[in-house]
């Protein structure tokens, strides 16, 4: 298990809020679009009960341009 395993939807959204992201809209199925108003960046986050796979979370952080260490320390 890596450093980014075990994060649930609620944990990820709580940390994204500290980076200025806000809920934008509901997307297809159980996915949501979150937006950072200052930069205009958007990320798609799956809203599932199970923890997010590590690769999915890494892709979300890459799309949001957030460093892994900054995310873990937020």
What are the salient characteristics of this protein?
74 residues; alpha+beta; Metal Transport, Frataxin, Chain A; 3 strands; globular
Note down, in words, how this protein is organized:
With 74 residues, the protein is an alpha+beta fold. The chain has one domain (9-73): 2-Layer Sandwich (Metal Transport, Frataxin, Chain A), CATH 3.30.920. The chain has 3 helices and 3 strands; from the N terminus they run αβββαα. The protein is globular and about 30 Å long.
Q: What is the CATH level 1 assignment?
A: Alpha Beta
What is the percentage of strand-forming residues?
Answer: 15-25%
Report the structural category: alpha+beta
Compute the number of strand runs.
3
Mean pLDDT: 93
What's the order of the H and E elements? HEEEHH
Itemize the secondary structure elements and their pairings:
Blueprint: H1 9-18, E1 22-26, E2 31-35, E3 42-46, H2 54-64, H3 68-73
Antiparallel strand pairs: 1-2, 2-3
In short:
With 74 residues, this protein is α+β, with helices and mostly antiparallel strands. The chain has helices at 9-18, 54-64, 68-73; strands at residues 22-26, 31-35, 42-46.
């Amino acid at each position: 298990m890596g450093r980014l395993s075990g994060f649930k939807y609620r944990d990820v959204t709580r940390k994204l809020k500290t980076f200025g992201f806000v809920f934008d809209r509901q997307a297809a199925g159980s996915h949501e679009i979150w937006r950072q108003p200052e930069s205009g960046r958007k990320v798609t986050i799956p809203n599932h009960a199970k923890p997010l796979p590590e690769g999915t979370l890494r892709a979300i952080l890459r799309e949001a341009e957030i460093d892994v260490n900054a995310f873990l320390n937020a």
